[in-house]
Specification:
binds flavin-adenine dinucleotide, Butyryl-CoA Dehydrogenase, subunit A, domain 3, 397 residues, alpha+beta, 3 domains
Length: 397
């Protein structure tokens, strides 16, 4: 196998890198200062340039306005975008919209595609995904208490969700609820497309996470769906297909996250390397000349490189086979890359000293924001169990 970027990716890397470094890095202080309205105005300007240059939505097919890259090609580009926490948002491939667009593309009805997929893919509207509930273990969503019942030509939905990322300002939510509580466990739930202005939908609050309630795409909400009435056509895919669709949505989503984390880790490493050379710890010596600091940097860099090859290999494996056959590999990169990011950023913060915990650099933001990488889309432990089960099964086959 050969992970040399294809000619197409090679031609894309330079303009993408230029936009990220020249236009997005200067906007990061707005993010760090929680100046979200000003930030979104500037992001919209960058988005226009991205579209003009034909770099929009690299993960989506050309039929819906994307670039139609393979997963491996997107992996290589996505790392470049991940160099800034604003990269994916500016290029139209941020969670949860990226996963929701892929879901509608593969399982949405023609009407859902016309009304919601097209504007979502073009970045004209945003969306959110509401599965996790406050009082039940999100690691095992089959415990879910949310319900949807047929009432004539409508579904009546009752659900209390939380950690619905980017709900504030979203046009619609994809809501998971049980439709057949007596069916076999994995066929009990279904997915619904619920416009956010439907009567009975309320955003209770943006949850304060690591000291910030965020805003818009940078927020996580507690949501209530009380006697929410949607037409039968709001069902996505088939009745009882909810968990299967959630898995098909999360498969690519997990790989997308890993690629983004690689970009963030690379940023932390570059920033630390440069800082070590600048920071004098005595009249003659910089930190870069201290063996302990050198060893810390080298260890972190090796962790990053190992995770990078594992992620590229997994993306390649999915392109060659499919998500089901690559399930163990996807679980392994999910926990391995999330842990790598945490360790690399911790090293970077440590070697920046007091500066590392301030908001004068992006490191503290990444440290706070991405602690959750080891929890969302499945905690480390759950992926370790899942990978182990697959590996043991393969050994017995
Ligand atoms: C920043 C962020 C964004 C999110 N965005 C969304 C979103 O947009 N939509 C959405 O629906 N949800 C979202 N979530 C929810 C996320 O998917 C859940 O937090 C996750 O599935 C874990 O569920 P839980 O928090 O209920 O933890 P629990 O299931 O209660 O687990 C708690 C801890 O127990 C351990 N654990 C769990 N199961 C096992 C096991 N079988 N064996 C060993 N240890 C175990 C793990 O360490 C786990 O972290 C988000 C979460 C975060 C933090």
């Amino acid at each position: 196998m050969d992970f040399t970027p294809s000619a197409r990716v090679q031609s894309l890397l330079e303009p993408v890198q230029k936009l990220v470094r020249e236009q997005l890095l200067p906007l990061e202080p707005l993010l760090l200062a929680h100046q979200y309205s000003e930030l979104m105005v500037e992001i919209d300007k960058v988005r226009r340039v991205v579209k003009q240059q034909g770099l929009w939505a690299p993960h989506l097919p050309a039929s819906v306005g994307g670039m139609g890259l393979s997963l491996l090609e997107f992996a290589q580009l996505s790392q470049c975008l991940g160099y800034s926490p604003l990269g994916h948002l500016a290029f139209g491939c941020q969670a949860p919209d990226a996963g929701n667009a892929e879901l509608l593309l593969h399982a949405g009805s023609d009407a859902q595609k016309d009304r919601y997929l097209q504007p979502l893919a073009l970045g004209e509207i945003r969306s959110c995904f509401a599965m996790t509930e406050r009082h039940l273990a999100g690691s095992n969503p089959t415990l879910m208490e949310s319900r949807a019942e047929l009432d004539g030509e409508h579904w009546l939905i009752n659900a209390h969700k939380w950690f619905t990322t980017a709900a504030q300002g979203a046009e619609f939510a994809i809501v998971m609820a049980k439709t057949d509580a007596d069916a076999p466990k994995h066929k009990q739930a279904s997915m619904f497309l619920v416009p956010m202005d439907t009567q009975g939908v309320s955003r209770v609050r943006n949850i304060s996470v690591m000291g910030s309630s965020g805003h818009g795409p940078f927020s996580h909400a507690e949501m209530k769906f009380e006697q929410v009435r949607v037409p039968k056509t709001a069902l996505i895919g088939e009745r009882g297909q909810g968990f299967a669709l959630a898995q098909s949505r999360l498969g690519p989503g997990r790989i997308h996250h890993c690629m983004r984390w690689l970009g963030l880790a690379e940023r932390a490493l570059h920033q630390t390397r440069d800082y070590l050379s600048r920071r004098m710890v005595s009249a003659e010596l910089s930190l870069a000349q201290q063996p302990v600091a050198q060893a810390m940097l080298a260890r972190a860099w090796a962790q990053y490189e190992s995770a990078r090859w594992l992620v590229l290999h997994t993306a390649w494996q999915v392109d060659q086979q499919n998500f089901t056959d690559a399930k163990a590999a996807i679980s392994m990169i999910k926990f391995q890359t999330a842990q790598m990011l945490q360790q690399v950023v911790d090293m970077a913060v440590q070697l920046h000293g007091g500066l590392g915990v301030t908001d004068d650099t992006v490191l503290a933001f990444i440290y706070r924001e991405e602690r959750a990488a080891r929890i969302y889309d499945g905690p480390d432990e759950v992926h370790q169990l899942s990978a182990a089960k697959q590996l043991i099964r393969q050994g017995m086959a």
